[in-house]
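lol so apparently i was supposed to do this last week
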Amino acid sequence: MSASSIDWFRDAKFGLFMHFGLPSNPAGVWDGKVMGRNWYAEWIRYQHNWPAPGGISRADYDTLIPQLTIEKFDADFIIHEAARAGMKYLVVTTKHHDGFALWKTKIVPEYSIAVSPCRRDMIAELTAACRKYGLKVGFYYSHWLDWEHPGGGVPPWPERPNDPPLEQPSDAMYERYWSEKCLPQVGELISMFDPDLFWFDSWGSKTDTRKTQLTPDRLGRLIGLIRQRSPRVLINSRIGTEEGVDFLSMDDNHFPDKLIGRPWETSGTMNRSWGYHKLDFAWKSTETFLKNLINNVSRNGNYQLNIGPMGDGSLSAATIKRLRELGAWMDVNGMAIYGTRPVDAAEPTWGRLTQKGATIYAHVFDWPTDGKLELPKLPMSITSATVLETGEPLTVLGSVDGAIVNVPPHPIDDRVTVIELA
Ligand code: JFZ
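anyway here it is w/ JFZ bound
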């Protein structure tokens, strides 16, 4: 990346993650059998010997291709919703672990959306919608695991604790996967769509298969190809190294408890699964998402909130409700999020702080019952305080080591009220 490419990411704070693919149609149910509700629906093919030993055979799995009609998929609608929710970038699964490409690829075209009944290019449609609404374009690409190519990696763990591990391809076969499919598809995504960000996925540094498959040589060739083709594209650390990449990805749904100096992000789910699971009703609240976002931003990080569109491409009502609730908060409080930086101050027990120039924003999670909000010692002296949502001025009682703001008896927003300090 060029020196300034990371700037948009550091200012954007909030992105939309989107998991879609062949598994969105069965949505966690196969032959009437329900996938564990703590499992990821996008893993339906390989999940602990479910629904039969060895998972679902390739031939059975491929019966999902003729079901890919996406008749209700409307990229413009989805990205418009994301923009209204205050999200500044998209990261979409161009190819998940199953190896099926959602764009009209010339590399292994027979395992892509081009051979599905819809004959549409979801990645082209989403990219166009992002450009229309001003969102940056990010691509999830499963570089490590690929269950279509005979050389691609399969899950690194035994199906059950006492089973032998799954048989991995030989190194020569993995090399074929890498040079015939992975590298050319990544190069093609750059030349076809000119993305702003790549989100690669690998994990478990202790699993040997990752170490032997994602060798420094292979990672060097992948990163080298991207750098050579695009000066601005950002790369995340889950590619398999923290060196030579642009930002760190935390473990899923992991929200760090301290500031991290390098740019970073957490990806999180709205319920449990990334891909749509029709029986996953464990929806988290908008309040939780707001606090996750503010927590990360106050510690120098971003938040990528996931949606899993249904098999026909549409969004569930539960998803749309949460996006709109987020948007309503961001409409009036967004300036306390975008472009801010962490504050050099002790973290208050009642919430979090962010800063932009000479303005500090106090995000109050737990409203004081005595009407007095105690500020920690701040890097500048505070003379005015205003409720951001209403413009109501509040009085500040100064002190060198920490001012007190007199606040109304009840919070303005009982999830998070922001007070602007200057
Ligand atoms: C991976 C994928 O397997 C999954 O389907 C989804 O795409 C998710 C975003 O990423 O799953 C992971 C990877 C890493 C961790 C957890 C789930 N981790 O490090 O905690």
